[in-house]
Amino acid sequence: LKTIAVLTSGGDSPGMNAAIRAVVRNAAYNNLDCFGIYRGYQGLIENDFEKLGPRSVRNIINRGGTFLKSARSKDFRTKEGRQMAFDNLKARNIDALVVIGGDGSFTGADIFSQEFDIPVIGIPGTIDNDINGTDYTLGYDTALNTVVDAIDKIRDTASSHDRLFLVEVMGRDAGDIALNSGIGAGAEEILIPEEDLGIDRLLDSLHKSRKSGKTSSIVVVAEGDQIGKNITKLASDIEKDLPEYEIKVTVLGHIQRGGSPSCYDRVLASRLGVGAVDALLEGESNIMVGIQNKKIVYVPFETAINIKKTLDFDLMRVADIVST
Ligand code: ATP
Predict the structure, then answer these.
(1) Tens digit of pLDDT for each residue in 188-234?
(2) How far is the CA of 10 from the centre of ligand 1 (A)?
(3) Residue 45 Cα to ligand 1 middle (Å)
(4) How would you classify the pairing of strands 33-37 and 49-51?
(5) N or C: which end of the chain has fewer CB within 10 A?
(6) How are beta strands 163-169 and 246-251 bridged, if at all?
């Protein structure tokens, strides 16, 4: 192993820069050459490479997003596109690739690696925390803190006006952000894709909390929840049933993807970035570097991609109890 390359792919997340930095620096530490590839797989196909040394990655540990930029690439889904990608790597004598991204990026990586017999290592970078085999993904902790901070501000105005706020957070398939930020911000109810609460149970619960003396409420809704998918309809359904509340909807949207990474995400990124280069030096391929019980682990792409991560259902119980 002499030369490696690193790219970021799919949705960006805070901590990606810190992970690139760690990959580049562990490469230098082990006397490997390292290239950065701009715009993910699309830049790989379009030959958008830059040689990176330890000083190329200074002053980025604290920055959100990814300085290498990210993209979604249709061309990489085709054999011809992947052939061009491989030719570009070979032209620079690049022996291995580190891909920072989500499960889609890992699927592409897995196909590419097997097709051309080139080692590829993945680093889980997505705010959703929806990748099996790792307790945390890069950017998740930062996103949680962003959401809790936003809900704290919403709570101030909710309590001043007897309002009920529906706060939509990211999570098409995974309720991790909703559940944890909901507990952390003291939400009355948390709607997640993994559990269909049903409108009747939600209304019943809101009535109960109103009777118990609550005058304002915050309901955290993951975007992929069954009844929360159409949040405007949900708001009008609640309004009909609970006319004493003024219902407001806040969609947090892309602010959840931005911002300076939390210390936890920076340390995680550093560990995963170092771990990815260590894995290549150990001869590993087609694995994601993840974290389980505070230890770095190697997880086959197949396990990371094809098995759905299970939600911690005890958190649901805790959420129910603390919102009484
Ligand atoms: P996020 O979780 O933020 O959505 P992701 O990595 O899952 O991130 P995707 O858009 O699903 O994001 O995938 C990123 C890129 O990976 C795609 O644009 C495509 O280039 C590549 N990719 C995904 N699936 C495949 C596939 N089956 N074959 C080849 N390439 C793929």
Answers:
(1) 999 999 998 889 999 999 999 888 888 778 999 999 999 999 999 99
(2) 6
(3) 15
(4) antiparallel
(5) C
(6) parallel
